[in-house]
Each structure stands twice: as C-alpha cells, then as structure tokens.
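Holo prediction. Input below; ligand is manganese (II) ion.
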Amino acid sequence: MIESITKAIKKFERFLITSHINLEGDSLGSQLAMADLLKNLGKDFVIFDSSRVPDHYRFLPHVELVRNKMDIRNTKFDAAIVLDCPTLARTGKVKEAVEKAGYIINIDHHVSNERFGDLNWVEKGASSVGEMIYKLYKKLNSEITREIALFMYIAILTDTGSFNYSNTSSATHEIVSELLGYGIKPYDISKSIYENKSLGDIKLLARALLSLKVIENGRIAYIVVRKKLFNETKARETACEDIISFARSIKGVDAAVFFREDIKKKGIFHVSFRSSKGMDVNKVAAAFGGGGHKSASGCTLRGNFEEIKRKVLKRIKSEL
Ligand SMILES: [Mn+2]
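Structure of the complex:
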C-alpha cells in the first residue's frame, strides 16, 4: 500500500492537505510533517483545515501555514491528502474542496475508516498517523530535520496518551528514540502542550468533575459539561480535551463517557467514549453515526440532552 502512496505523491504536483475538525496533536503534527515531505520533494501544497490551531499548539513552527479559509473556485489541486480522518464528513467545511480536488489520498489509523479515498492507506495497528508519515519519509528516503522530528513526535506523543495507551508498542518507542536523536526536548514539548492551561480551564475541570457519576455497579462513569459552564468559568473549548480520562481512571470502570454541549450550535452534543478491559467503544459510537478506535471513540448528536444521555447510556450498558 505504501508504494502506491509514494507513487501518487511523486506523480502529482499540487496537493491539498487536510485533517479532521477540532485539530489535535496527531492531525496537526501529521499535516505539518506531510507538508515538509512534499516540500522536500519540490511539490506545491496548501494546508486547509476546518478548525483553528488550538492555542497550546501555536508554539509549533509553520502553524501559520494552516489556513481556515480558501476560495475554492479559484484554486486547483491534483490531489487531496486527508490525514487522521475516519470519514470525509469529519473534514468539516473542507469536504467540498477535497471532493473538488478530484483525487483523494486517505491516510489513517482509525478502525472506523470508511475508505472514502481513491487510495486508502489505513493501518489500524499504527499508534498515530504521525507514525505512518515517518514510514513515508523512510520509504522515500527523505531527510528528517529537527523540526520534522518534532511534528512526528507530537503526533505520536498525543495519540498514545504520552505512551500510556494500548497502541504504544516497541516500534513506537524505536521510532521515538530515533526522533529524539534530532535534538527535540520532551520536557519543553510536554510543558507547551499539557501545562499551558488558563485558570478558567482548571475551574471548568473542577466543575466538570463535580458532575461525575458512576452507574452499573461502578462499571460505567460519565461526566457532563453544559454550555453555561464555559461562560461561568471563562474556559476555552480545548479545556475539555482529556477530562474523560479521569472517569476512565477510576478502579473498576469498564467504560467512560463524556458529554459536551457545543458552544456555538444549539442542541448539539459531542459524546466521547473510552474503554478499558477490551470493550469495543468504536461499535458504540458507530451506532450513533460516529466512530474512532476500539478503546477511544466519539460521536455527535442533536436533540434534547436528557434524551441523548438516556439513549447513549442504554447503548453502552448493553456492551457490558
Ligand atoms: Mn490519530
């Protein structure tokens, strides 16, 4: 598969690079690493994403290349490279531009990937798309610099939960060991990403934890964050990123659920799932039109909150 990807990259000249809405470490790191790979090969590219770069990733070089607006009528691409994205709909408003590009290269590691591309390289066993891009560099014999190593490291670091999740393997550590050889500083990176919170973010965390409930004899834990909490605490949307791990960390919990009301759109709720001990939460998210990985997934629902909560908890109970 990787050969057809390298062939396509060599064949085309002008690329659209994109990823999923709500950018995070893997989507951002893999896009920036892909951009440098294309640059190394003398190709043209534009990075166009639906969401803005979160504040705690603004320390990365080249983030200014990430565009959130584009006049697609006057732009022509030979191909679109879609990274870390299980469905085309997850590219958000970039979907139209991807379709217009005419040829789609889909590179991903989600089990729920819908193979929407003309070329689909989906590696369920990869820790992150960053790890897959690393393999592309090796395959193409392309030079890795300190900056490129940083992009890949961030993708791997964040998608493995700082090397804690079950997707962490000896291969992951071997790659990371090589990346560290380029002189990147794990402590500085970790500080920039994880210790850059506002006071409001922490106040929101405190309030969110107060909402934590356990059901089914402690086997399911869930947390709820309603819209008004953002106003009351002055937290940023990204403050919610890893609150769900507190629910999963409780002894005896098989599955954790995090409900977050959308700040802008009325009646929209984002639901995340995390499991331990092998429950397949990708299946649970898929039942509501979402997806992800076996032990980490999500979906978005519209409607009355109590009704959504009831439906979601009923579905996850059936997996116990
Ligand atoms: Mn990923």
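Residues 25-40 form the longest helix (16 residues). That is the main takeaway for now.
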